[in-house]
Write a structure and sequence with these properties.
364 residues; alpha/beta; nine-stranded mixed β-sheet
């Protein structure tokens, strides 16, 4: 393995972030396969709802369970293995409830609650936090030397990284107290504004017959005794993301406008306290070859004109790419390596293609 790649994969957690369409999933799979080939035990997880990671690795896209990647033919060193998985937020939430509920009665009450059933399946913020829970679970199980995380595009990735802080704020907020408050608690000092909010919900219940307040209260009270556990795990996850064993790789391409996106990710990662390990520029085209033979007398003039026009087009594209790469370089913080992954000339479809991308990585 190249020293450049080895320095990245020596960490315990690598998080790939970036805008859509730049090859984050390909990069995540490439990092995982490169580490597994070097003899490390690797878990790769995607929180992108699209099954691109599993598809890229030739696995069952309908499954959310960890699946072993067949490394036969890739000359992996002894001890190397790789598993890939796609997050199922509801399945993860159900498992957490089953694991941490104080009793079977409390577990069943939560799982059968109407608010819980809709919330666990539909709310984006729940998916962010469930990904954090799954990540923490993988890390603390200790079965993997390296965990590679493929995040959703753009701002959603930053919301995921900020999920532990948002959960901690929610658990410390008055909303939990208000929604789960008993009658005696209400008489003991809840403000008029809070009472008004409950009155609105009660009136809504009377008009619609949906019993929303009762269901919300049942949902919140069902978690009594579990909030400290959620808060503790959120704090541990936040510490994991900020630990020196964790780095984020900003993945992008050498196209106009990408530098502004890279700047946004640099600012967001800095704000959340996640270390930036590298900026990876994907699909960089090779240097243009010398136009040998284009002026030979035995080449028809019409063909020479077409070859000349094609060469001019490629030169223009390369100049634009070089300019975009220079703009990205100006954004990269001091001490953070800027890496390029050359374009293969075709869409990577096989595991060997992903390994080849890793072999071709080089400093920009």
């Amino acid at each position: 393995m190249k020293p450049l790649l080895e320095s990245i994969l020596a960490r315990r957690l690598v998080i790939c972030v970036g805008p859509g369409g730049v090859g984050k999933t390909t990069s995540s799979a490439m990092f995982g396969l490169s580490a597994a080939g070097a003899g490390r035990a690797v878990d790769v997880m995607t929180i992108d709802p699209a099954p691109r990671l599993l598809d890229a690795l030739g696995l069952d896209t309908a499954s959310n369970a960890p699946q072993a990647v067949d490394l036969n033919g890739l000359a992996a060193r002894r001890g190397g293995r790789m598993r890939a998985m796609r997050l199922d937020p509801k399945h993860t939430f159900d498992r957490i409830v089953a694991s941490y509920a104080p009793s079977a009665v409390a577990r069943d009450a939560i799982l059968e609650n109407r608010i819980y059933r809709n919330l666990s399946a539909a709310l984006a913020g729940i998916a962010d936090y469930m990904a954090i829970e799954r990540l923490l679970e993988l890390h603390e199980q200790g079965g993997a030397d390296l965990i590679v995380l493929d995040t959703p595009p753009a701002a959603e990735a930053m919301e995921f990284l900020d999920a532990p802080r948002r959960l901690l704020e929610f658990l410390n907020s008055r909303a939990v107290t208000l929604l789960g408050a008993s009658g005696s608690m209400l008489r003991g000092g809840i403000s008029l504004v809070d009472l008004a909010a409950r009155a609105v919900l009660s009136a809504f219940d009377r008009v619609t017959g949906l019993h929303l307040l009762r269901d919300v209260q049942g949902f919140v009270r069902g978690f009594d005794g579990m909030y400290p556990g959620f808060a503790d795990r959120a704090a541990r996850a936040q510490a994991l993301l900020r630990d020196k064993s964790c780095i984020a790789i900003i993945v992008t391409t050498a196209e106009p406008g990408r530098s502004a996106q890279v700047r946004s990710f640099v600012d967001g990662l800095t704000a959340t306290g996640v270390a930036i390990g590298a900026v990876l520029v994907n699909r960089v085209s090779p240097a243009l070859p010398r136009p040998v033979g284009a002026r030979r007398s035995d080449v028809a003039s019409a063909i020479r004109r077409k070859l000349g026009a094609n060469l001019a087009d490629f030169r223009a594209l390369k100049r634009r790419e070089v300019g975009a790469l220079a703009a990205i370089r100006e954004i990269v913080p001091e001490g953070v390596p800027l890496i390029i992954a050359p374009d293969l000339g075709h869409e990577p479809r096989r595991l060997s293609d992903l390994i080849e991308i890793g072999r071709r990585l080089k400093p920009a």
